[in-house]
């Protein structure tokens, strides 16, 4: 490995070249680092024909950067999408990152609440581990941005600015970028937003000894503390109030929660303890603090699905038209003309009865062989469940794939991660990445997989091992 510092990008997500280009460009601009850029490629690092569970980004040349590496990690709670480090050695949780970046593809044109509020919790939570990290909300918009921001978006954007979060990837008005100067200004801005009558409105009321903030935290009919848009909204409001100097009680009202649903491992409870937020009529349990903010991923099925996704796109002409890797953001479905459309959550039978529209973890297109590959990811221990789930994809095949790719055949298959096994017995399993990094192809694996793995190994036989 070079003696220079390397750029390390840790993520729970499937890394995208467009996002990496923005992150690397921002880093180089902030630290006055010159570079030449070519089209980026994300290459699995191989040693002795085994995957090292590290990816290298190729396409950036700079005398000031050794190499650019990506590692898949998992957060213990409310983890941002990317942590960025500039150092020689692989990061450990006690190292301080330069950036904490949250990626979203959602804009006002889809949801006035989700686009700005849902991810705010992550920025509040990370402050208690890395208080001086640069926080960025990165929009990767795949549909046209709404011409004028809603008042909700303006309010949420100003809360982010108040809490030191920068927005990238979308056009911001001067008002959106302006932090609140006072608690009274924040409260008045929220009062100016007209609430939907079917919802419990978020109202902020200041009293002499406390501030009340109303907002439902119960999700639908589930009676659980899991309504993410309002969790994000209420936590960023409380954080902003603390930043602006409020040191007395903050009480959440009209939350619709019962005492028995409050657990000491809920992300809202973590933040409520940190910010001293109270829930009206309830006792907030003392949370069990995690010592670390993140850990390297070693168990999840997405280690295999992300691997096959990246190796296909880097070493073949194949590409993804949909992804929903475990624990990662769900993409839109890419149509044959390049446009995108969201997948529906439910299908309807002839009698009008609603049922869940099952979706795979990954859909790849093999242009050379005119084949679409539906992929279900599972751990090795749960491989039988994955095989059974292949039976559920009739709806997505008929309503999406066959409509957009009528000349393509459709193959359904399972990829798995885990175990020390080196052979695949089940014909429905086409690829296994075992715990030691060995890559195993099944007897009925798509030719696209064979081509990708063969080209990957051939590349490293001709290229010096750099890691």
Give a structural overview:
With 467 residues, the protein is α/β, with parallel strands linked by helices. The protein has three domains: 1-73 and 75-182, no CATH class; 197-284, Transcription Regulator spoIIAA (2-Layer Sandwich); 297-462, no CATH class. The chain is built from eleven helices and 23 strands. The strands form five sheets. Strands 1, 2, 3, 4, 5, 6, 7, 8 and 13 form a nine-stranded mixed beta sheet that branches. The protein has a six-stranded mixed beta sheet with strand order 14-19-20-21-22-23. Strands 9-10-11-12 form a four-stranded mixed beta sheet. Strand 11, helix 7 (267-275) and strand 12 (277-279) form a beta-alpha-beta unit. Helix 3 crosses helix 6 (228-243). The mean pLDDT is 92.
Task: Fill in the keyword field for this structure.
Transcription Regulator spoIIAA; six-stranded mixed sheet; nine-stranded mixed sheet; 25% helix; 467 residues; alpha/beta
Tally the structural domains.
3
The total beta strand count reads 23
Which spans of ≥5 residues are poorly predicted at pLDDT below 50?
none
Distance between the termini: 5 Å
Strand content: 25-35%
Helix content: 25-40%
Q: Helices and strands: which structural class?
A: alpha/beta
Radius of gyration (Å): 24 Å
Q: Which of globular, elongated, flat, extended, rod-shaped describes the shape?
A: globular
Please state the average pLDDT score. 92
Counted by DSSP, the helix tally is 11
Largest sheet: number of strands, sense, barrel closure: 9 strands, mixed
